[in-house]
Design brief:
The protein is mainly β. The protein has helices at 2-16, 157-160; strands at residues 37-39, 55-58, 64-66, 71-79, 82-88, 97-102, 104-106, 113-114, 119-123, 137-144, 147-149. Strands 1, 2, 4, 5, 6, 8, 10 and 11 form an 8-stranded antiparallel sheet that branches. The longest helix is centred in the N-terminal third of the chain and has 15 residues, at 2-16. It is globular.
């Protein structure tokens, strides 16, 4: 019985921690290692209603902005006086997902392929969208067609909460009735 338990636990560990990820599976924060979310996702009730169609991440001016995952540059240029980079993510359905970063000075051009972690631009001077207590921030958005989605859903939960969950022993407790041995 003990051998079966050991084999089962080993198999679960191997499945939970794969040795290598497939191409395109990498997901990273667009700025820093674990930036502060200074303004959260707040979807509007109606298409033109008030809300926040992305998240704002604290970052210093001129910070490198990186691709969250592999993609193709859908747009890189100016919109309403600020720089924007938008990446189309492969194999994400029809219409495909697009992630956007602003305000950034683009370091890429439309049509270029990028990989997770590749610099796609640098953070520009604030344009008034950051909360007052934050000197500068990156607005990070996610869309499918015309529908805005929460970009944090692209990240593995371990990136947001400081690492993978782990089970710790409960000291002073015994298995009832000799269940495992």
């Amino acid at each position: 019985m003990r051998k079966l338990l050991t084999v089962t636990v080993a198999l679960l560990v191997l499945l939970a921690f794969p040795s290598s990820a497939r191409a395109g599976d990498a997901r990273l924060w667009p700025v820093g290692e674990r930036p502060t979310v200074v303004r959260a996702w707040a979807p509007p009730a109606t298409p033109y209603g008030p809300g926040h169609r992305g998240v704002d991440l604290a970052a210093p001016i001129e910070a490198p902005v990186r691709a969250v995952t592999d993609g193709r540059v859908f747009f890189a240029g100016g919109i309403a006086g600020r720089g924007v980079v938008s990446l189309e993510l492969p194999d994400t359905g029809d219409p495909p997902l697009r992630t956007t970063y602003e305000p950034v000075t683009p370091a890429v051009r439309k049509g270029e392929e990028v990989t997770a972690g590749e610099v796609v631009g640098t953070l520009q001077l604030p344009t008034g969208h950051c909360p007052l207590a934050t000197p500068s921030c990156l607005h990070w958005g996610l869309l499918r067609g015309d529908t805005y989605l929460n970009p944090l859903t692209l990240l593995d939960p371990s990136l947001m909460h400081g690492g993978r969950s782990r089970l710790l022993p409960v000291w002073g407790w015994e298995w009832p009735g000799g269940l495992f041995g």
